Amino acid sequence: EIVLTQSPGTLSLSPGERATLSCRASQTVNNRYLAWYQLNPGQAPRLLIYGASSRATGIPDRFSGSGSGTDFTLTIRRLGPEDSAVYYCQQYGSSPDTFGQGTRLEIK
Amino acid sequence: QLQLQESGPGLVKPSETLSLTCTVYGGSISSSSYYWGWIRQPPGKGLEWIGSISYTGSIDYNPSLKSRVTMSVDTSNSQFSLRLSSVTAADTAVYYCARRLATYYYQYWGQGTLVTVSS
Fold first, then answer.
1. How confident is the model at residue B103 (pLDDT cuts 50, 70, 90)?
2. Does the beta-carbon distance from A99 to B64 stay under 8 Å?
3. Which of A46, A64, B38, B75 would you label with B2, given CA atoms 20 to 30 Å apart?
């Protein structure tokens, strides 16, 4: 199975800054089938990005995804307090689906 | 807006079977475009895909759990279910149900339900 490694483990930034989250795969992710999710305790996880770079419905353009092959990035511009969460990448190009271990984003 | 709600016991004894149900509101469970899945998150750990099922009963399970997992769909009640047998403390987790587009990404998730395995 494909192992996804996310970095950094924790990111602490100030409002208005830009966050760059990395997701590296142990093998090529077919067809750029990579998604990003935002998780907050007690809330339903939210799909942010699919197909490596397509924003899900209702996701502001502050969120962008890029990458291919084994290296993918989620970028969040103009950070606000509401962006404090844990972010996970998921590859769905090869079975079984796998998720990264998550990056915790803290807004100072 | 589609909503999903997990339900089931919050405490299960070791060696017993964990049973959860997900009810779908605001949309049809009987669509060939979607699969219905289960994902879990043990305390302090990342997400783990458990399996997915279509309304026709087409199923895909994570090989690491396949021997213990059973999933089913009840279209008349807009529900799908998960059964995980012979549970141990390692199965303690928040269990999420979700709708996925075919065998791709998960579009909508439930809020999750914590299941603790303990005697």
1. confident
2. no
3. A64
For residue A66, the one-letter residue type is S
Query: A9-21, pLDDT tens digit by residue?
Result: 999 999 999 999 9
A78 secondary structure, DSSP code = S
Inform me whether the C-beta atom of residue B109 falls under 8 Å from chain A C-beta atoms.
Answer: yes
- What integer is the mean pLDDT of A46-59? 96
Beta strands, E only, B1-119: 3-7, 11-12, 18-25, 34-41, 48-54, 59-61, 69-74, 79-84, 93-101, 106-109, 113-117
User: What distance in Å separates the CA atoms of residue A86 and residue A18, rounded to the nearest whole number?
Assistant: 16
Q: Does A37 touch chain B (CB under 8 A)?
A: yes
pLDDT at A71: 98
State which H helix or E strand residue A72 sits in.
strand A71-76
Q: Give which of A70, A97, A69 is closest to A1, Cα–Cα.
A: A97
Measured CA to CA, the distance from residue B58 to residue B75 in angstroms comes to 14
> Judged by CB atoms within 8 Å, which residues 43-82 of B form the interface with A?
45-49, 60, 62-64
